[in-house]
Amino acid sequence: MQNNRKLKLRKQVTFTICILYLSLTTLSFTGSNKTIIPNESFTIKNEIKAQLQKLIYMEGGSFTMGRTSGVDILMTESDSTLFSSMIPKKATIEPFYISATEVTNQSWREFYLDKVKELGITEAKKRFYPDTLLWLTEYPYSYNDPMARHYHRLAYYDNYPVVGISWNQAKAFCQWKTEKLKALLDKEGISSTIQFRLPTEAEWEFAATRKTKGVMESKDLIYEWPSNYTLPKLNELANIGPVYDRNNVQLKDYAEDGCLYICEVASYPSNERNVFDMAGNVSEWTEDHGYTYSFYTENDEFNSLRLTDKTVIEREIARHENNLNARENSFEYNLNWLKHDLTILARENIRICKGGSWVKGLVYTQIGSRQGFREDQRSTQVGFRLAISNLDQNVIKYLPKKNWKPKKRKK
User: Which pTM was predicted?
Assistant: First the structure.
C-alpha cells in the first residue's frame, strides 16, 4: 500500500513538472513590438550566428597593393585572362570583414532551392544553377564526366567551393544572403544596414598580404608565404596547377599537392590573417572593373595612367607606337602589355578575379596578379567569397568569439 502511495505521488510530481515546463516554454514575451517564444528566439540567435560564423575581421589601414614579380609574368597564349602587372601603389582601406573560405556548394544549394520556391524550377535552373557542362567544354581532352555529373549534386562535395557561376550570379547570392540575415535580425527586433558583397580588389589583397613586422623585403610580400617557401613547400601551401621553370622543365604536376581537381575549402593552412585558400583552389570574383596601365614621363618623372576605356587604350597604343624613343624609354614592354590587356577588356563588362586556382600556374598565386572575366562568364576555375564593411554594433555581438577554423577531418 505504501509503495502504491509513493508511486502515485511520484506520478503527480512528474505531471506537475511537465505542466510547468510546457507553460514556461509557451510563455511569450514582448519586445521591440515583436512577440517571440523563448525557444524560437534561441533558434533565431543561432541562425544569425551561423550566417556570420566564417567572418574574419580585417583592421584596415595602409599597405602596398599590386606587388608582383614582373620577371615571372611571361605572356603566353594560355594567359588569355591575365592582366599586366599593376604599378605597386599605396592603398588605404577601412576596416572590414571577409569570409574565411570561399562560398561552398552547400551554401549555394540552399540559395538555389530558395530560388526554386520563388521562381519555379525551370526559371531558377536557367538563372542560378551552376554550369556543370564547363567540366567538359573547358577540358575537352580530359575525362571529366564524373565531375560534371556529381560536383554540384553529391553531398560528398558540399564543402567544396561552388564554381561555374558568373559575377552576376555571385552578386545575386550576396543579395539573397543579405535579405536572409536581415529577416532573422528583424525577428529579434534589430534593424540593420548590413550588406553582404564581394570584396574589392584592394580588400582582397589586404586580406592576402602578410602582416609586416618591422622591415620586410619586397620579395617577401609577393606571395602569402615567405619567398623561400615558394618551391620547397609549395605542395603544402596551396592547390594550384603545373609549375614550369624558364626552360619549360616541369617542377610540379597537378596532383602533387594532394588534389587533382578542386579540393575541400580550408584543406591547406590559413595565411597570417586566418583566411584560407586565397593563393589556390579557385580564383575569386571581386567588385572591381577590369583596367590596365599606361606609362609616361613628365618633367623627367615616371607616371602612370589607369585605363578602362577601350578607345583611350587604343589611343595610348598608337602614341607608344609613334614614339621613336620607345625602346630607350623602356615603353616597349608597356606597349606589349597594353595590346595584351586590350584583348581582355575588349570583351566588355570585365571584372577582376584574384588568386590562383587548381589549374593555373605559380604566377597567378602572386597577390598582385589580376585576371579579367566577363560579368556573365563562368568557369570551373572561379568561385567567390563574401565581405562586409558596414557591420552595426547591435550585430557584432553575434560574431564568433574566435576566428573560424575547419573541423578536423577523419583520416
Answer: 0.85
Contacts of 379 (CB under 8 A, 6+ apart): 134, 138, 163, 164, 373
How far is 10 from 213, CA to CA, in rounded Å?
68
What's the rounded Cα separation, in Å, for the pair 34 and 189?
7
Q: Which one of 21-25, 227-231, 390-394 scores highest in mean pLDDT?
A: 390-394
**Rounded Cα distance, 276 and 101, in Å:** 5
Q: Check residue 301 and give its pLDDT.
A: 64
- Indicate whether 108 pLDDT > 60: yes
Q: Give percent of the chain above pLDDT 90.
A: 52
Separation of alpha carbons 375 and 352, rounded Å: 9
356 and 282 Cβ atoms separated by less than 8 Å:
no
pLDDT in tens, 212-230: 665 455 667 888 888 777 7
Answer yes or no: are the C-beta atoms of 205 and 354 closer than 8 Å. Answer: yes
Q: Which three cell numbers stand for residue 268?
A: 591547406
Q: How confident is the model at residue 15 (pLDDT cuts 50, 70, 90)?
A: very low
pLDDT at 282: 97
Distance CA 221, CA 381 (A): 24
